[in-house]
Design a protein that fits this description.
Length: about 230
Amino acid sequence: MGDAATQAGATWHPSPNSGPRRDGLRPELLLIHFTKMQSAEAAVARLCDPAAEVSAHYVIAEDGRLWQLVDEAARAWHAGRGSWRGAGDVNSRSIGIELANTGAHPFPEPQMCVLERLMHGIMARWHIPPEGVLGHSDIAPDRKDDPGARFDWRRLARQGFAVWPEAGAQAPTEAFRDLAAQVGYGMDFSDADLLTALRLRWRPWARGPLVAADMAVLADIAARFGVDRSGADA
C-alpha cells in the first residue's frame, strides 16, 4: 500500500480499515456515497476508527477539501453487502468516494468540481467506463439510498463520468426484472427495492407504481450499456 495521497491536492489521512484486494481483483467500479454526518471531519474520524470497521478511499467536504484515506490499489471497506452484474465483494472491485452531505441538502459547487477532477483521474488510471460509476444505492438497494435524490447524476453524464438515459426506448412492465438484471442490478432484491434504486438514480421526482417511463430508462440503459450488450459480461 502507498504512504502518500494518489490524488494531487488530497490530504493523506490513512485509515487502518483496509486490506489487499481479494482474488487478484482490481477496481472496475467507482462507488459514490454520502456521509450522512454533520461534518466532513466527523466522517473522516469515523472512517479511520478501527472500531467502526468502515472506510473509503476518499472524502470530499462541501467546500472542496479532499482527504485520501486508503491507497487506490487497496481494498477499502465502503460497500458492504451488495452486488453488481452478478458479482459480489464490491469492495475488491471498486473505489469508494464519500461526499460530506447530511442527505437533506444539495451538493455544493466546490464539492462537485473536486469530485469531477477526482473521478477523471481515477477513471483514467483504472480504465473505469462511465457505466462503472454507481451510487451505493445501486449495489445495495434494500439498505442504502446514497448519494440520494439530490445528487446530480445528469451533470456527471454530460462530462462522460456516468450514464444517462436517452428518450425513445420502450419495454413492457413484464420485462422489469430481466432488464434490471441486464443493467446490473442484483436479482436477490425485491421489485420495490429495485424500483427505488432506479428512481434514485434516474427519476428521483417519480412516485407511485412502476410506469412506462421507468421501463424506458431500463430499456435504454440495458441496450446501450447492459451486461448482454457485448457478451463480455456473462
